[in-house]
Amino acid sequence: MSFADLGLIPELLKAVEDAGYSDPTPIQSQAIPVVLEGRDVMGGAQTGTGKTAGFTLPLLNKISRWASTSTSPARHPVRALILTPTRELAVQVHEAVQTYAKYLPIRTVCLYGGVDIRPQIEDLRRGVEVVVATPGRLLDHIEQRSITLGQVEIVVLDEADRMLDMGFIPDIRRILALLPKQRQSLLFSATFSEEIKRLADTMLRDPQLIEVAKRNTVSETITHRVYPVAAAVKKQLLVWLLREAEGGDQVLVFVSTKIECGRLSRHLQREGIAADAIHGDKSQMQRTEALEGFKSGAIRVLVATDVAARGLDIDDLPYVVNYELPGTAEDYIHRIGRTGRAGKHGNAVSLVSPDEHQKLAAIEKLIKLKIPQHTVPGFDADASPDSAYRVVRNQGADRRAASASRSASPSAPRSTSAPRPARSTVAPDGFDFSRPYVAKEALNESESSAAESAQPDSPRSARESRPVAFLLGGRGR
DNA sequence: AAAAAAT
Fold this sequence. Notes:
Rossmann fold; 2 domains; 37% helix
């Protein structure tokens, strides 16, 4: 199956080829023909499955059919509207739209808050066919009458469950009410709650259900690991883990609050780690800078609230760390979905203090997976800052006593300038990281065939899971 | 319970 078989026009095929894609992903080969046919779609797809191209390509294909080459704004009514829950996601989707529309006479704009509205109004005045927007700023434009939605042919609701969580549904309904009744609607959601189904009932007509990944499941290319740790030494454990994963590996660290987000990021910076923070109280400029810095590699550790939990596509992100477990088990799925994307191997590491074990149990129940636990001496659930310091200091002494050629214990949390010890393949808790390892320990029956193929000894998983580096796991050298 | 989003 190739993109050419899906009935896309040459201009789009060329753009897809330029982007370096040859074969459609499962959701793309399912969604593209259905959308081209004009049917409504209820899509259940995790991000990283090629969902964005799955709706963007057929959307552009349809719009292109009568694409106006006129320079008159009046000939460029808004014909497609894509709504996303966060600004960063809007930017990302808009980039995809631009990528695929490059050989088409189609104008696009991205509308979101936190930035000057005037350039957006200018773009709208000149005329655009495709609008990607967050709900708040779009409503702003609607009230200012800088946009008319009376000729929209296709509307896409991306990450609908997130929109629901964020209380956007009333806004969405207001926006939908302004669209023509005769239109095509696509709704994508990682999870299907009763509320999402109700929204779908009012928004979609005879939708085709497209589901690639099973709901509430996590990618098999992700290795999960839990570190039980006392809250008092969590910060030190994180620094220690980050140091051990050194070698340029990037880490996205999730926290529960904006306050902790800034605090932890500053702490890491003081420890000499290239870190930045992204959360909703930062200016849009700071948010964009942080994300760009992370994507470019200038930032090694991005500390984030759940603003970054969904949809964000960061190439080759090897690690996600839950510094604090998310409030809901579903958020765990979204957060760790930032790694292990597009078939690549990823690591989900969670630092769990005793007060978080309820949450951990809920997560394990939802993902039907018992996550292996590992403890680091000095950083276990009963550790105090003092005991942690003693253990680390002793490890340092052992190391100094040991021969230089032997692999040694990890460096102390605060020794920024100490020489780096050789990388060990056996953790202090005795876990052998030199063996390829895939976490698949407690699957339910319906997934047993998938589990089969993910067993450590099978050729497929041996290929997918590289020998694991120290502690954070994952990347072999 | 916190986060996100219009100013």
